[in-house]
TrEMBL record:
GO terms under biological process: tRNA modification
Protein name, per record: tRNA-hydroxylase
Domain of life of the native organism: Bacteria
GO molecular function, one term: tRNA 2-(methylsulfanyl)-N(6)-isopentenyladenosine(37) hydroxylase activity
């Protein structure tokens, strides 16, 4: 499935660990609840960027569209959860997003560039995880996750293009920095399962 998105595969430092995939299959309710939270957070992030960077025309255009799509995805996940009598509950956040965002530089435009690069990694990883999970899920969930691949891949491209557009210098070094960090966050063990967690910590 990911063969249609070679740039996305090349961008990510590694594939999701098999142990994480097994963990996800065993925790379908948590998977869907956290997925819903992720879509809502993604929409919120896009809206926050629109408020913070009101003078960035291309950002406004791309983030407006992204926010609408992420909210639609939230509604779709929530609909599946209601159909399956799964409660939508609060979950503690995984260390993934915070582990990336705590390295954002504080001066502009570096702050914006780092935020865009992180957005690209989050969207790319989400796309990769939907693809690796789809073959192992029931028909309804599998079709749904496959249907998300195109938009998630486009979101990755949008974030990366914006990072390049608003940077005063090549972004290769910052991409490499966050790629190494992302690999560590994805491969190191976690105690709680989440959409963007690492594999389970051995008992």
């Amino acid at each position: 499935m990911l063969s249609a998105y070679p740039e996305l595969v090349e961008f990510l430092p590694c594939a999701s660990p098999d142990a994480w995939v097994k963990w996800a299959i065993e925790n379908e309710t948590t998977l869907l609840v956290d997925h819903a939270h992720c879509e809502k957070k993604a929409a919120s992030t896009a809206m926050s960027l629109m408020y913070r960077y009101v003078d960035r025309d291309n950002l406004l255009h791309k983030m407006s569209r992204l926010a609408r799509e992420e909210l639609l995805h939230f509604e779709q996940v929530h609909k599946i959860m209601r159909k399956r009598n799964m409660p939508y509950e609060h979950l503690t956040a995984s260390r993934y997003a915070d582990g990336l965002r705590k390295h954002i530089r504080t001066h502009e435009p570096a702050r914006l560039v780092d935020t865009m690069i992180i957005g690209a990694f989050v969207e790319a990883r989400s796309c990769e995880r939907f693809a690796v999970l789809a073959p192992h899920l029931d028909e309804e969930l599998s079709k749904f996750y496959i249907s998300l691949l195109k938009s998630e891949a486009r979101h990755f491209e949008d974030y990366l293009e914006l990072a390049k557009e608003y940077s005063n210098e090549p972004i290769d070094e910052r991409v490499a920095f966050f790629r190494a960090l992302e690999e560590k966050l994805i491969t190191e063990p976690d105690t709680e399962f989440r959409m963007h967690s690492g594999p389970p910590k051995a008992a």
